UniProtKB/TrEMBL annotation:
PANTHER family: 2-METHYLCITRATE DEHYDRATASE (PTHR16943:SF8), 2-METHYLCITRATE DEHYDRATASE-RELATED (PTHR16943). This is MmgE/PrpD family protein. Pfam families: MmgE_PrpD_C (PF19305), MmgE_PrpD_N (PF03972). InterPro entries: MmgE/PrpD_sf (IPR036148), MmgE/PrpD_sf_1 (IPR042183), MmgE/PrpD_sf_2 (IPR042188), MmgE_PrpD (IPR005656), MmgE_PrpD_C (IPR045337), MmgE_PrpD_N (IPR045336). Belongs to the PrpD family. Gene3D superfamilies: 2-methylcitrate dehydratase PrpD. Residues 269-435 form the MmgE/PrpD C-terminal domain. One of its GO terms (molecular function) is lyase activity. Residues 16-242 form the MmgE/PrpD N-terminal domain.
Length: 458
């Protein structure tokens, strides 16, 4: 990418700064409402991830190595109750959410915004408990818009496919600067710091070797929140080329006109989005043809290249399970869904699921490659033991612009993720905040009171 970076007062950056720091953005109602849904859905994922080993590791690490120097710089770790530094809390929660893999995403970016932005919002919320619910949602919406375009710019101008932390850090930096009331110059440095230190980690390396690293969003939350706080102290950073380089200007030209936050999908399952279309294709045949696991002789999945590379064996860990299309399809066949309990503990030792995996194969299709990344489509052809052939036809992954989930489906997913961690009363109160935060008399503190205390039943 060109090193010919715009001046501070260049119209390209000035327009972005005006958008990011404007406390009176005119946000369409549909975008703000969807943002509220994304926020509460992500907090449901955070609750469900509390019991994961990686969540426990992250929170304990934050307590030991990310202590706050003063109460003013501390934040409470959600569904835990312990207080650490603001940046440490953002990192721990981002890592926790990332590893349950049930959080929202923006298809054109091939990644996730809320996994870093929501942890940062909740960490900064304790410093800014006076802000209203609509103000919090507007700030979150702004951060989604900045992160989305930073991601598009990065993917279009580098050869490697980087994880979400490489670009969602910029959305976090913008969020922090807006809440901390930065100047445009401080924002410019914060974005530069966040881009410079953002984890340029290779996504396909993690796909081929699934680990707790996941999509880098924990580091995105840490780097972005740190960048904002450093810039407020006068720390300087080289301008962010994904924002200021002339060749990416067209990605920013519709800022304030196209509200990408309303295009973010919600995952129905806690696994890699790439496998969801195939899962939904199998689900479709189960519902329309009465397909059951004991009828299956073989399933051929036709999908896009990236999905065909997902782990094909019986997983030994939660992370392998989330990045295994064969496993989640087999789980769908047996259980009719894939829920948090299926990707950990006894779910990883299910002999019926293991027996189905060798009957599944996946091949890449030019037809489905043509729709990726904006679309996530697949189809399956099932050969039954009695000689029938069942074809699903092209199926889009549920939860996004190609196949939205209903409010009832999103709420059902939310309660399923909270089960075993939050009491029904607390989970219902948290879900009710989706509508409550849209009211002018609400406060972000109304939400933090519900999420800062430890889990009820974990």
């Amino acid at each position: 990418m060109s090193r010919n970076i715009a001046r501070t007062n260049d119209p390209q950056f000035s327009a972005i700064a005006e958008f990011a720091l404007n406390g009176a953005l005119d946000i369409p109602e549909r975008a703000l409402k969807h943002c509220a849904t994304l926020l509460i859905d992500t907090l449901g994922v955070a609750a469900g991830a509390t019991v994961l080993e990686v969540g426990q590791i992250a929170r304990d690490h934050a307590v030991e190595f990310h202590a706050a120097g003063s109460a003013a710089n501390a934040a409470t770790m959600l569904f835990d109750g312990r207080r650490v530094s603001l940046t440490g809390a953002a990192w721990a929660l981002g890592t926790q959410i990332d590893n349950l893999d049930g959080h929202d995403g923006f298809a054109p970016c091939k990644g996730h915004i809320g996994a870093a932005v929501v942890p940062a919002l909740m960490a900064f919320a304790e410093r800014h408990s006076e802000i209203s619910g609509p103000q919090a949602l507007a700030t979150m919406t702004m951060a989604y818009e900045i992160a989305a375009r930073a991601g598009l710019s990065l993917h279009a101008t580098v050869s490697d496919y980087h994880t979400s932390g490489a670009w969602n850090a910029l959305g976090v930096a913008a969020l922090g600067c807006r809440l901390e009331r930065s100047t445009p110059e401080q924002l410019r440095h914060a974005l530069g710091i966040a881009e410079y230190h953002g984890p340029r980690s290779q996504m396909m390396r993690e796909i081929d070797n699934p680990t707790m690293l996941h999509d880098g969003s924990g580091m995105g939350a840490l780097v972005g929140s740190t960048a904002a706080l450093l810039a407020m102290r006068g720390f300087t950073g080289a301008p962010a080329i994904t924002i200021e380089a002339p060749e990416v200007a067209h990605y920013w030209s519709d800022l304030g006109e196209r509200w990408t936050v309303a295009e973010n999908y919600i995952k129905p399952y806690p696994s890699c989005r790439w496998g969801h279309a195939a899962m939904d294709a199998v689900r479709h045949l189960m519902r329309t043809e009465g397909l059951t696991a004991d009828q299956v002789e073989h399933i051929e999945v036709r999908t896009f290249d990236e999905a065909a590379r997902l782990f094909a064996g019986m997983p030994e860990t939660t992370t392998q399970a989330q990045y295994s299309m064969h496993f989640v399809i087999a789980t769908m066949l047996k259980h009719g869904t894939v829920a948090p309990e299926h990707i950990e503990g006894a779910g990883l030792r299910d002999p019926d699921v293991a027996a189905l995996i060798p009957r599944i194969s996946a091949v890449a299709s030019d037809h489905h490659n043509a729709t990726f990344p904006e679309g996530r489509w697949s189809d399956v052809v099932v050969t039954t033991r009695d000689g029938r052939t069942l074809a699903s036809g092209d199926i889009a992954a549920r939860g996004g612009v190609d196949a939205w989930m209903s409010d009832a489906e999103v709420e059902e997913k939310f309660h399923g993720f909270c089960a075993g961690v939050l009491s029904e009363e607390r989970a219902h109160a948290l879900w009710a905040m989706r509508d409550r935060l849209l009211q002018p008399d609400s406060r972000i503190a109304d939400l933090t009171e519900l999420v800062n205390a430890p889990g009820d039943t974990a």
